[in-house]
Write a structure and sequence with these properties.
The model has no long low-confidence stretch (mean pLDDT 96). This protein has an 11-stranded mixed β-sheet with strand order 1-3-2-4-6-5-10-11-9-7-8, with helices on both faces. The chain is an alpha/beta fold and 481 residues long. Helix 2 packs antiparallel against helix 3, helix 10 packs across helix 12 and helix 10 packs across helix 13. The chain folds into 2 domains: 336 residues, Amidase signature (AS) domain (Amidase signature (AS) enzymes, Alpha-Beta Complex), CATH 3.90.1300.10; 81 residues, no CATH class. 41% of the residues lie in helices and 13% in strands. The chain binds glutamine.
């Protein structure tokens, strides 16, 4: 069901299929299951077919770009000229973008096709894609379960075979966790590796664009196109983007140094996931790689620090949606005061989880509480960053679970915010410290659902993350199915 971009591309370049045929195959899958999965909220069928004809012409002339054959869905928070962007919120009701995000511009210039707009949790806040104005997105393999979140529609659209790549965003785990739940590779590159220009903001110091695909190489091919400095985003890294694909084709045989923190494998982690990762570690050692025990005590505070910092930034970023400057405006009469318009528009426009975060964020930033919460969380963040800097002096890759469980049942956590937040326990520290992190599939749980392992490398070291990812893919394929 899941198709790989590079395999599709290979078949196209070898003349075994055509791009219009691939788009028709995608549209047939959308037609058969999207009404239930609810992964895509807009499908650009005619546009995709027309572009497929055009790019097919380029393939035949040998002039196609490096993403010819890529069929993308875009999380509902990327600006895509003349297409809707709503961040799954009523507050952006019917908003249409007037420009392309840098990542959209780059994939289109490389001859990718955008098939549709993907469901998500409102403004990226959630871990199950149940908080959406479009209704929940379901796991394509089991509609009783969630696909993960917040980029649930992105993951589900690839897992259901509608697309072979998808762009999402990861502020605290929103690419890695749904990738693990849906059996995909999901990359959160280091902070600033990819431009955020044209991305509807959640928490700007944590937001990263991320990519979903069937394999590590598929995701690497995508990153090679979308990464790099952008004058529109001053936080983008200036370091050159390596030719990932070339490096992956000619791997060096240097052993990698892995770091594992035993305290991450204690209580709270599902036992199948634990055992699978333990066998993976044994297999890694067998191949001659080093595995070191590491200790990262500051990470135990990452959940608290994240939910203070992310909500503080969200309360500020979302202040612009007031019904006057931007966003949905509630019905009003001639007597309505400005404050009434703001209050009514925001009360009607935002969903319950977003309101909870705005209230929390406003509280932690308020006079009298600022130092106790926001100031303290900033200090914790610095400690977590320092811990990673020290660990990456000794090891190349930190290996840990992506999520404590497999895809959970719909409705199971939606009324219990703390249980929902706890699902992010393994992913948040990477955003707080800005490092690279990726989830790679490691086979099936005894409940039949996919499981993932998380690989983390230093800032700007996406290449090493890909190399470790290819190693895991090979071990899983050869020894652990
Ligand atoms: N689940 C986390 C949250 O709700 C992370 C979301 C994200 O990465 N966008 O904040």
């Amino acid at each position: 069901m899941i198709s790989s971009f590079l395999s599709d591309r290979h078949a196209l370049l070898a003349g075994k299929t055509t791009l219009p045929e691939l788009i028709k195959r995608s549209l047939a899958s959308v037609e058969s299951t999207n009404h239930e999965v609810n992964a895509l909220i807009d499908v650009y069928a005619d546009e995709a077919l027309a572009r497929a004809e055009q790019i097919q012409g380029k393939i035949e002339k040998g002039q196609a770009g490096s993403l010819a054959g890529a069929i993308f869905s875009l999380k509902d928070l990327f600006a895509h000229k003349d297409h809707r962007l709503q961040s799954a919120s009523k507050i952006l009701d019917s908003f249409t973008s007037i420009y392309d995000a840098t990542v959209v511009e780059r994939i289109l210039a490389a001859d990718a096709i955008i098939l549709g707009r993907a469901n998500q949790d409102e403004f990226g806040m959630g871990s199950s894609n149940e908080y959406s104005v479009y209704g929940p997105c379901k796991h394509p393999e089991d509609p009783q379960r969630v696909p993960g979140g917040s980029s649930g529609g992105s993951a589900a659209s690839v897992a259901a075979g509608y697309c072979n790549l998808s762009l999402g965003s990861d502020t605290g785990g929103s690419v890695r966790q749904p990738a693990a739940f849906c059996g995909l590779v999901g990359l959160k590159p280091s902070y600033g590796r990819i431009s955020r220009y044209g991305l509807a903001a959640y928490a700007s110091s944590l937001d990263t664009v991320g990519c979903f695909g069937a394999t590590v190489a598929d995701v690497a091919a995508c990153l090679e196109v979308i990464a790099g400095q952008d004058p529109h985003d001053m936080t983008t890294q200036s370091s050159a983007v390596p030719a990932y694909m070339e490096h992956l084709e000619h791997p060096d045989s240097e052993p990698l140094r892995f770091g594992v923190n035993p305290s991450w494998f204690m209580e709270g982690l599902d036992s199948d996931i634990k055992h699978r990762i333990e066998s993976l570690i044994v297999a890694i050692k067998d191949l001659g790689h080093e595995v070191h025990e590491i200790s990262m005590p500051a990470q135990s505070a990452s959940l608290s620090a994240y939910y203070v910092l992310a909500t503080a930034e969200a309360s500020s970023n979302l202040a612009r949606y007031d019904g006057i400057h931007a966003g949905y405006r509630a019905e009003q009469d001639d007597q309505s005061s400005l404050e009434e318009i703001y209050t009514k528009s925001r009360s009607e426009g935002f969903g319950p989880e977003v309101k909870r975060r705005i209230l929390l964020g406003t509280y932690v930033l308020s006079k009298g509480y600022y130092d106790a919460y926001y100031g303290k969380a900033q200090k914790v963040r610095r400690l977590i960053q320092r811990e990673y800097e020290e660990v990456f002096q000794k090891v190349d890759v930190v290996l840990l679970p992506t999520a404590p469980t497999t895809a959970f049942k719909s409705g199971e956590k939606v009324d219990d915010p703390l249980a929902m937040y706890l699902n992010d326990v393994y992913t948040l520290a990477a955003n707080l410290s800005g490092i690279t992190a990726m989830s790679v599939p490691i086979g099936r749980h005894s409940n039949g659902m996919p499981m993932g392992v998380q690989l983390q490398t230093a800032v700007s070291d996406e290449l090493r993350c890909f190399q470790a990812g290819v190693l895991v893919e090979t071990l899983v394929k050869e020894r652990m199915q």
